[in-house]
Amino acid sequence: MSTKKHKVLVANRGEIAIRIIQACVSLGLDFVCVYTRADEGSGHLALARQLGGPEAAYRVSSYHDANELLAVADHAGATAIHPGYGFFAEDFRFARRVAERKRGLIFIGPSWRIIRTLGDKINTKRLARSLSIPTVPGSDRPVYDELEAEEIAETLFAFQAEQGIANSVVLVKASAGGGGMGIEEIYDIEQFKTVYRRIRNYAKRQFHDEGVLIEQRIFDFNHLEVQIVADRTGTGIVHFGTRNCTIQSTGRQKRVEIAPGFRPEEVTYAFDAARLLDDITGYSLAMAREVGYDNVGTWEWIVSPTGQPFLMEVNTRIQVENGVSAAISRIKGQGDVNIIAEQIRLGLGDAMGYDQSDITFEGVGIEYRVIAEDPANRFTPWVGRIDQFLAPNLPYARLHTHIPMDAPYEIPTEYDPNLALAIIWGKDLAEAKKRGTDYLDELTLSGADGTGAEMKTNIRYLREKTSTILQF
């Protein structure tokens, strides 16, 4: 299938919309973009009009309105939809509707059946265990029997004792919950029955399902990821290395991502880090092959201080941090890898054209998420106007942003406060860290809120955290 026959609806906003537009242009594809009233000052709208003219962008009331998005697709003659990340990216019902409607479109992401299969965390855990892939210890299905649940909890406390964990913790969770709702920690088995009954009753009231999950609480872990890329056949499956996403806000939102996930050449670990990276990439590929994975995706892992990996979940979409993996990747010796372009090309049916032996890795990449927030106050988002945004133009750095650099920009309150992604490359960890701090020192970002108070950003926080990256 020739990608040149297609027109892609970019069903997202901001930085990821810009990167999708740029990828389409690099592939010779037509595109059409959407925007909301709040995003009239966004760079993704300006770029769409610059590259595609006035008919390349349509205003919608919401990025969450599937009917509006599909109406734009039909009106503009789009043949495919790229959901980016967030919004509809992991909604299997939307992906199914896109593919199976009378005027069918290509959903640029995994097939809806795969999204449904791997979007269910319990099902993912069960599938992993069937392949002898380690998962967070605990139940792999909702438990409705109190005695069975208590037995699982006792097993988890015993497991933690064997690991030498001084202060054991077990999580009791409503299986139908989400967003942190219906979760409590217990510190010894004597607490279990009381907490189990409370969570069970809460789950019944809130979710009409009494099912409860019992899991081990893992502390002091590192958060690693494996980047998977696959073609539509479900057989051409490769990985583009690992990432370390351990530096996060208090709300477990990533702030700095590094590729590769560990750097045993320059950092000493209490375990065989090179083998650990090989293990999690091998496990991720095995699971992708088992389900016939057919686009990009990320296998998310937590690693204990003793080097034990546990599969946490699978994200069936492109991720914010794909660019830091691309920064260290080479295909047949060539750099400038664009994983978003690969996602689009392969999603439209092109053959992969390379295999794992053609992919190599060079150096270290660091991705900084530049955000309007106050790290000293629990990362509270800052709202106001950006008056000046200047970034150094350096050969080893890339900046992805929807913030205009030639005009003031009012940060919309409707969306997250992410402003930019800065990706830095170095031949080794030491050089990447030095270049990273130098870059942040030259970054200028200023503005004021409605009271005239000075803009708050996380730039100083990012600089402080650079010294600790890839250390366990």
From TrEMBL:
First-level EC class: ligase
Domain Biotin carboxylation: 4-472
Gene3D superfamilies: 3.40.50.20, ATP-grasp fold, A domain (3.30.1490.20), ATP-grasp fold, B domain (3.30.470.20)
Reactions mediated catalytically: N(6)-biotinyl-L-lysyl-[protein] + hydrogencarbonate + ATP = N(6)-carboxybiotinyl-L-lysyl-[protein] + ADP + phosphate + H(+)
Residue span, ATP-grasp domain: 125-345
Keywords: ATP-binding, Biotin, Ligase, Nucleotide-binding
EC identifiers of the protein: 6.3.4.14
Residues in the signal sequence: none
Gene Ontology MF term list: ATP binding; biotin carboxylase activity; metal ion binding
Chain's role: This protein is a component of the acetyl coenzyme A carboxylase complex; first, biotin carboxylase catalyzes the carboxylation of the carrier protein and then the transcarboxylase transfers the carboxyl group to form malonyl-CoA.
Name of the protein in its database record: biotin carboxylase
